[in-house]
Amino acid sequence: MKFFDTNILVYVADIRDPQKQRIAEDLVAAALGSDDVLISEQVLNEFSSIALSKLKISKDAIKEYLRFFRGMATVTFPDHAAERGLDVAERYQLQFYDSLLLATAEVNGCNEFISEDLNDGQIYCGMKVVNPFKAIAP
Q: Where are the alpha helices (H) located in 32-80, listed in sequence order?
């Protein structure tokens, strides 16, 4: 089971980097309707914030993206997510919101965390980080 970090969804909407956009679009297209990939409400919330503030996308367009992304299996925070997130943040010296995503993925049985933001190949909470953009990194 895989878990998509927010940056995967952001690159779907970000026209400034066509290579990353294409990779992200392919990942999301493959995940739609699959039970092998999860996202969380936190990912959708973070996407909305970034789309508004950094990408300057209209609220109506963001709502369209959200409807599209909800074609993937979406999970909510597990019980005691904040406490587990704090433990993860302390153990790995990560920001709280990244740790909360890791805790959510862990509790939902994921073994891969798909992200550009964490160290490719590193194991967090029993999950391997996979950076799908590694091949095009400068």
A: 41-53, 59-69
